[in-house]
Amino acid sequence: MGNMTPRTPLEFLVQENNRLVTDLISVSGGSSTATTAAVTSVASVMTSAQLLAANTSRVEAVITNDSTAVLYVKLGTAVTSSSYTVKLTAGESLIVDKYNGVIHGTWSSVNGNARLTETT
Question: What is the 3-state secondary structure (H, E, C) of 33-87?
Fold first, then answer.
């Protein structure tokens, strides 16, 4: 993927084949630091499921696809395999920075979990 022209005020980093791949590059806003991390998981489903609720205190979120199925992640609601923000294959992780809204996910088949860490 390499460097891309900034498109939105969001930053995504995806781990692919043991190398960090930058997708959307643009950071806006303050330079908050986190002091707390909450670790949760969401079981895979083939419908839109909330991975993280909106949280104005969120500094960063890490989403790892702990499944052999594809995980479609959407910043917002009503994620589908044709309406998503990022597609994570097995074992890939996504770091969401500077976004405090709801995050939804759905899988290509019911298998495994999304492992989530939200820092505040």
Answer: CCCCEEEEEEECCCCCEEEECCCCCCCEEEEEEECCCCEEEEEECCCECCECCEE
Task: Enter the pTM of the model.
Answer: 0.75
Instruction: Render pLDDT for 2-43 as a digit per residue (tens, 0 to 9).
Output: 444 444 444 444 444 444 444 433 334 456 788 999 999 999
The answer to whether the beta carbons of residues 20 and 62 sit under 8 Å apart is no
Instruction: State which CATH number among 3.40.50.880, 3.40.630.30, 2.60.120.770, 3.90.550.10 fits the domain covering 11-119.
Output: 2.60.120.770
Phi-psi region of 104 (alpha: psi -120 to 50; beta: other; left: phi over 0): beta
